[in-house]
Write a structure and sequence with these properties.
CATH superfamily: NAD(P)-binding Rossmann-like Domain
Number of strands: 9
CATH class: Alpha Beta
Strand content: 5-15%
């Protein structure tokens, strides 16, 4: 288990904005060298500039990566080994994700699978590719971002949410399975699953960058407007969420619920698992993403 990030090497996917940016910034301030990737070079450079200003003594590496592509992640890994002259890393934050893929009936297959391949495939491939470097470290942590939609596959009535929810359920189950896998094969590693509620991030606008097909201009404008509202009205900021995650990892917590809404929804689902989809739990909590 990692009890201090100072002097460690941390890897963060989706580090260009939101929780990813805050993870990069706070890890750097804590004294970690940070390698991070994103699909958007411009936001990565913004993150790198912020982290460099606030933590001038640490090493930073940026790399453009589509986490659903194994070759991209392998290139990222090789760049880390070369840039940091290392055979190991201490922490992997599989944070990258996109929204969408709501219905099996109305969403085109390639768009549905794009969401699933980023949100689940990016976590799976990240672990596959970086586990040898993590195992080579004297201690390490794998931190996989799921969602409240990893234990409750709904965002409210009449709103199908299949690809994103399926991917986040997969991330949660996979990470829980890693707990035993690490005990048997790599007891010096810890696994952590992060389940945020409504956090002020740019996940909707970032999704626009990653769509297989360009949306119609009117739809794109609507999504951007929705993204701004989603970010501004969130009950928890990305900065607060990243702090919660890092504190929990250092404390050895494997199940990390982020936000009061996440805790409330978790309790509600556990209290009536059979009736969870008959009742609109979001009527009690408001919108959670």
């Amino acid at each position: 288990m990692i009890d201090d990030f100072s002097g460690k090497i941390a890897v963060v996917t989706g580090g260009g904005t939101g929780m990813g940016r805050e993870l990069v910034r706070q890890l750097a301030i804590a004294g970690a060298d940070v390698a991070f990737c994103d699909i958007a070079p411009d936001t990565m450079e913004e993150t790198a500039g912020i982290a460099a200003d606030q933590a001038p003594g640490v090493r930073l590496l940026t790399h453009r990566v589509n986490v659903s592509l194994e070759a991209d992640l392998e290139s990222f890994r090789d760049a880390i080994v070369d840039r940091f002259d290392t055979d190991h890393v201490h922490a992997l934050f599989n944070n990258a994700g996109v929204a969408g893929g709501g219905s099996m009936f109305t969403i085109e297959r390639n768009e549905w699978e794009n969401v699933f391949n980023v949100d689940w495939g990016g976590v799976y491939l990240g672990c596959r590719i970086f586990l040898p470097l993590l195992t080579a470290a004297p201690m390490g942590a794998v931190v996989n971002t799921s969602s409240v939609n990893g234990f409750y596959a709904s965002v409210g009535p009449d709103r199908p949410h299949t690809a994103y929810s399926a991917a986040k359920f997969a991330v949660k189950g996979f990470t829980e399975a890693l707990l035993e896998d690490f005990k048997v094969n790599a007891p010096h590693l810890s696994a952590h699953v992060v389940m945020p509620g409504h956090i002020g991030t740019k996940i909707i606008s970032n999704t626009l960058r990653h769509l297989v097909n360009e949306p119609e201009p009117e739809l794109a404008e609507l999504l951007l407007s929705t993204s701004l509202t989603f970010e501004e009205q969130a009950p928890m900021t990305a900065e607060e969420a990243a702090r919660t995650i890092l504190d929990a990892v250092l404390a050895g917590e494997w199940r990390i619920l982020v936000g009061d809404d996440a805790h409330e929804l978790d309790r509600a689902v556990r209290a009536d698992a059979e009736g969870a989809y008959r009742n609109n739990l979001f009527s009690l909590l408001g919108n959670v993403e």
